[in-house]
Amino acid sequence: MVFAAPGAQGPSKGVVDALDHAVALRAGIRAQGGNAAVVLAALIEAEGSPGGEGADGWVCEHPVADQVLLVRATPDTPVDSLRAARTLTRLARRVRPDVVLCAAGSDGREAVELAARASELALLPAATSVVRLAPEQRSLVALREVEHGWQEMRVDLPCVIGVSRGPDPRPDPEGRNDAEVRVLDAAELLGSDRPGSARGTAESPPPSRILHSSSAPTPRAGMRTGDPRTAVRHLAAAQARTSPLPRPRRPIGARRQVWVPVQYRDGLCHPASLEGLDLAARLHPALAAVAVVPCAAPEQARALAPELGRCGAEQVLALVADGLESRSPAGYARALSCAAAEEAPLAVIGAGTADGREYLARLAVRLNTDLIGDVVNARVDAPPQAGPAAFVWTRAAGADREHLHLVTRAACAVAALRPGCRPHPRSPSEPAPPELRMLRPGIGVPDGRITELDRWEDRLARRHVEQAAVVVHLGAGVSADTAEAAHRIADARGWTVGGSPQAVQAGLVPPQMEISVERLCVFPSVALCLGAEPRDLDAVQGAGLVIAVPAFSGRGRAVPGADLTVDTDADRVLRTLSTDRPPSPVRPGTQAATDSANH
Fold it and tell me: How far apart are CA 49 and CA 119, in angstroms?
């Protein structure tokens, strides 16, 4: 069964990718002598259908489903992410599919959260960020896409799968199907639940509402030059910006706590976890930032304490339990939920990575609250001494650079911080390590229905495109030689190379580094777009500075959406970056910058 989450406008890319996986599974099962059918289930608004053209829109545009189930929401059952997971759970209990493939709009990040929530509610094993599936006897072999590599795992049936991208190559659609279309009522599906228990209920999540959306984004400067040294000066100026230091640490005392779960590997903290600590340390003087380290031994947390203290942690809480060294998202969620029930933090702010989005979604279900994803900032005006607090979360709203501001009030708010949205805090001094406290939560027995088969990752010391301060974006007009030079310069300077879908297909960048509106929008300090076309710049509009080198030079006009267009060959720009020492920095928008550009 393929489940389309709320907000999907007809068969979007995420839905099509999930359907392609379903078709490939159906063909594989039939090739093994079995029988399989594809059911497309869509949660739709009270009025109309997702595509606005009736149920036929779901069948005609991608005619591969054997059956279509449209679950219609009503004013009494509004469409939100937590209710979507509960609706999916109730629907799965009625249909009893062997595999539930989750798709959400055009953003695979939402599919991760939906699959994790449905797994917790239905008590089924799950795999998220999946790019390939192969059927076995009563199990699936899933290939997960993690930030710098892949993880292969076996998942017993029935299971929930969160799709990251479609299979490669795409399967043959097998012609048109005359799918049976049924319309169900969401209130009917949820009506038999009784509120009050922590999981699997129809109880509404704590109130959340949209405060406002930001005003239209400020237009880019739109300067143009033929001199690549101008780009070097602008890039140097943007890199010179630093983050203010976290506020001084004080004894925690009776202050309410904001937890930041720490993801780490080989003794190194994930950069997004350090950004979360920086945010937590600035929320309010009456709140204390606590770094939570799930580990198998307290020595692991003690080794991380100095770096966590430099980034704002006032206390390090070591959650010690056997099995947590395997970095299982389900194990993390169990440990955090047990500890949160005992310690009652005011909020949990985690890293919005592939694994982070999964364990945070599971944690939100266990705490009977909602998950606020893609957070780039937050504030709380006056935290109470007891009870919930009103948080104002700022969410990234996509390529248009407009932000969405949400107000939530919950006993324990759970949020996923967008990696790379905050500068890495740097302390000029070496503060004393924060207090280390140990807690032994009960996490139960690990799920034996999931077996890790293999995991391989790129060990190079380069950051993912979500975490890098400077991103070199390769467009469709870049050659293999230019891409090789860009990788070489980026590695030497600590930058990261990403690319458009065309660059991924050409093998110039790995799939994890794809930057596109459909896949991933990034928020670096600088985006240097080589071989750029206007559509390539849509996904980097959150950058502080956008420098575009057009795919075809000599056009004599600026690329829309760029602060600076360098109207010359991309190889010339890379040679300048590799040989020239940048002149004194020039801030974009100043008179000196204007004089240096050729209009």
Answer: 26
How far is the C-alpha of 373 from the C-alpha of 353, rounded, in Å?
A: 11
Q: Which two tokens stand for residue 548?
A: 């575009």
- What is the rounded distance in angstroms from the CA atom of residue 71 to the CA atom of residue 48? 11
Per 3-state DSSP, what percentage of the chain is helix, strand, and coil (rounded to 5)?
Answer: 30, 30, 40
The answer to whether the beta carbons of residues 561 and 547 sit under 8 Å apart is no
At 344, list the tokens. 């009652």
Helix axes 108-122, 329-343, angle to 10 degrees: 70
Q: Are 302 and 270 in contact (CB under 8 A)?
A: no
Considering only CA atoms, which of 450, 420, 422 is closest in space to residue 327? 450
Average model confidence (pLDDT) across the chain: 77
Q: Distance (Å, rounded) from C-alpha 161 to C-alpha 461?
A: 30
Q: What are the pLDDT digits (tens) for 136-154? A: 888 999 998 877 778 899 9
Please give the Cα distance from 481 to 331 (Å, whole number): 44
For residue 375, what pLDDT band results from cuts at 50, 70 and 90?
A: confident
Mean pLDDT of 571-575: 88
Pairing of strands 450-457, 435-439: unpaired
Contacts from 132-141 at CB under 8 Å and sequence distance 24+? 132/167, 132/168, 133/21, 133/24, 133/25, 133/161, 133/167, 134/28, 135/25, 135/28, 135/29, 135/32, 135/34, 140/25, 140/99, 141/453
Count other C-beta atoms under 10 Å from residue 384's C-beta: 12
CA atoms within 13 A on the CB side of 396: 28
Residue 287, pLDDT above cutoff 80: yes
**Closest-CA residue to 260 (of 242, 244, 278):** 278
Cβ–Cβ < 8 Å for 318, 301: yes
Give the C-alpha separation, 260 to 348, whole Å. 6
Q: Is 324 left (phi over 0), alpha (psi -120 to 50) or beta?
A: alpha
Q: What is the pLDDT of residue 5?
A: 58
Structure-model confidence comparison of residues 305 and 204, the more confident one: 305
More confident residue, 459 or 416: 416
Q: How far apart are CA 98 and CA 564, in angstroms?
A: 52
User: Per-residue pLDDT for 315 more than 60?
Assistant: yes
Q: What integer pLDDT is reported at residue 80 of this predicted model?
A: 62
For the chain, the C-alpha Rg in angstroms (whole number) is 24
* Cβ contact 94:87 at 8 Å: no
Looking at residue 37, what is its pLDDT?
Answer: 86
Tell me the DSSP string of 77-104: B---HHHHHHHHHHHHHHH--SEEEEE-
| Torsion 554-479-514-227 (CA) sign | negative
Residues 90/41, Cβ–Cβ less than 8 Å:
no
Tokens at 285, concatenated: 């003087």
CB 141 within 8 Å of CB 154:
yes
Q: 178: buried, middle or exposed (CB in 10 Å: 19+, 13-18, 0-12)?
A: exposed
Q: How far is CA 342 from the centre of its chain?
A: 29
Q: What is the pLDDT of residues 497-547, one digit of tens each?
A: 999 988 988 889 888 888 887 777 787 888 899 988 878 788 887 788 888
Query: In the chain, pLDDT over 70 holds for what percent of residues?
Result: 74
Distance CA 40, CA 51 (A): 14
